[in-house]
Amino acid sequence: MTESRAEIPTYGNFIGGEWVESTGGGTFTSVNPADTRDVVGRFQASSAADAAMAVRAAEEAGPGWRRTPAPKRAEIMFRFASLLAEHKERLAREMTREMGKVLPEARGDVQEGIDIAFLMAGEGRRMFGDTVPSELPDKWAMSVREPLGVAAIVTPWNFPIAIPCWKMMPALITGNTVVWKPASDTPGSAALLVELLDRAGFPAGTVNLVTGSGEAVGMPLVENPDVAVVSFTGHVETGRQIARRAARRLTRVALELGGKNAIVVMDDADLDLAVDGIVWSAFGTTGQRCTACSRLIVHERVQDDLLDRLTRRVLGLRLGDGLDPATDVGPLVNAAALQRVAGYADLARTEHTVVCGGRPATDRPGLEHGHFFEPTIVRDVRPMDRLAQEEIFGPVLSVIGVPDYAAAVTALNQTPYGLSSSIYTRSVDTAFRAMRDFRTGLLYVNAGTIGAETHLPFGGMKQSGNGHREAGHAALDTFTEWKAIYVDYSGRLQRAQIDNQPE
Ligand code: UN1
What we know:
This protein is of the alpha/beta class and 503 residues long. It is built from 15 helices and 21 strands. Strands 14-15-16-13-12-18-19 form a 7-stranded mixed β-sheet, sandwiched between helices. A 5-stranded parallel β-sheet has the order 9-8-7-10-11, sandwiched between helices. A 3-stranded antiparallel β-sheet has the order 5-6-21. α3 (88-99) packs across α4 (103-123).
């Protein structure tokens, strides 16, 4: 598909309730990774000045929004959730066009946004604090959550609707205002989402959108003295930089970073069930999930059998445009991703055994204009090899054979990451041991490593994050400050820890 320049829609930043051009006037384009001749739109290449304007708008909207009763904030959020449901198909199709995941997965992505919006809107009538007895008579003790102020939300391209909603919904329901910088691979999905937020009735300035690069927009947001909290999902190196820069002002930072997630298959597992979970977790979203399975740790006794069954399935996966119902696996997001994944495949060829895949698929008819890479399985990988240690973020699965459960646990935990893990076994004892031993924030028994639900805490241990959790009621902790309140109605001075104690 080719489009003339004039037909390409141009989107502004959304600041203080208005769609505006960036101060510098520069733009960049977003293209379809399945066919790079298809240009999705033109977006503002913003600068620190635009970021500062958005923070100011969010600051100004802050007091009014914070004083709006949470159940009233929730009414707007319920409306937004319904609008998102109404526009699910349109947003899913645009998402597939812009970042490549197959349409059923794009629908799932939007659904995750709908789910978290309804969940957080419900928090508008909960947002529980503690009311507890005081140690002194005639004294009341309780705790309440308070919003922090302006939240800077910096999001990746792999879940263009779900992840921004995971962050913005808890931020907004608790009374913060938001400046959002979406990934430069998916600004189109961001613009569509903001249109719906606006239509739902979030007051001007409560949600602001600024597109542009991480260096030009993201970092100035992190360093802006009026930003109270930064929530970021992306690469571990960027996360480290954000944490370093935010540390100067002690700005709160919530980081969701990489993963090197593994599925363990024991010798008593249902192998066909395991194959289903491995294919889905390793090659769904073309392996481009933080939670994707990139290591298969398998008991040596069943390794060959499992690999036979797995390879047969993987060779049958059809690559193509995610909008085509026949497609199982879409493209990688951009040329740099294709190059990175190809580099790991080269490494696999020299140091290990490539069982299947291992090459770009851009020489196949119909795939010439996209960033396609073959689903790849590599065996004879040891736990400390680069392929088993580094996040590849593509359709490459490394297979590690182990003699027993103890070796499986050691291999599983032997990475700097700790996001998601899974075990396939028919033994209740082994399953419970894994629930105790696997050091990951998400853990699945007899299911793959992906598919977290929005009402449970989401996040990782070790370098997969910095201890915060998204989704579930845990998400409220990122965006609120606790205030402990004591009301003494005794009419006299009462000293805690001193009065009312034995002499
Ligand atoms: C991510 O890849 O950053 O559990 C998020 C899952 C999805 C979310 C993934 N619900 O795979």
